[in-house]
Amino acid sequence: MFKHINHRGGFTLIELLIVIAIIAILAGVAFVSLDPLSRLADARDASRWTDVTALLSAIKIDQVDNGGYYIYGVNNFGSPAAATAADTNYMISNATTTTGCNASACSAVTAAANCVNLSGLTTEGYLGTLPVSPNGTGSWSQTLTGYYMSRNTNGSITISACESEGGTSVLVNR
After folding, report:
1. What is the rounded end-to-end Cα distance, in angstroms, of the chain?
2. What would the pLDDT profile of 45-102 be if each residue is shown by its tens digit?
3. Any domain includes 52
4. CA 147, CA 136: separation in Å to the nearest integer?
5. 124 in Cβ contact with 63 (< 8 Å)
6. How far apart are CA 11 and CA 119, in angstroms?
7. How many domains does one find in the chain?
8. Is 58 within a domain?
9. Is residue 107 domain-resident?
10. 117 CB contacts (<8 Å, ≥6 apart)?
11. Strands 90-93 and 147-151: what pairing?
């Protein structure tokens, strides 16, 4: 007499569908809980913090190298005609004229012609390139970097980002 052995060779379609549905539910829960949009916004803000710190450090090192005077455009070696006005926000740019920069794209800069050309920091070797803010809600370039600066009445410099996606302002002051 022959004994019939029933060998099961695989999974049934129902079993496979149940496993796929469970994996899909777990993936959906993980995707929602990790919130990739917030992680990307945090990464852009971290880049902005790095950029404003690098800009301010380059300005300050240049100031030390120039005997206490800021780079041309911030304060033209004591010449008020070429200096930025105290406590006024200026878009950081590489534009050679103020007409090449439409600073009104940044809400903190109140006049469209308020631009300061800091490309000298790159030509003098203090920065590799002029930092450009990562595109969040704004669209930034070398002409409109997404960063602005203010020379304060006490002689300090404040560098800020035009936008912040994390809720806190991105700014450094020295």
Report:
1. 96
2. 999 999 999 999 999 999 899 888 888 777 643 344 456 788 888 888 887 665 567 7
3. yes
4. 13
5. no
6. 66
7. 1
8. yes
9. yes
10. 73, 93, 94, 95, 96
11. antiparallel
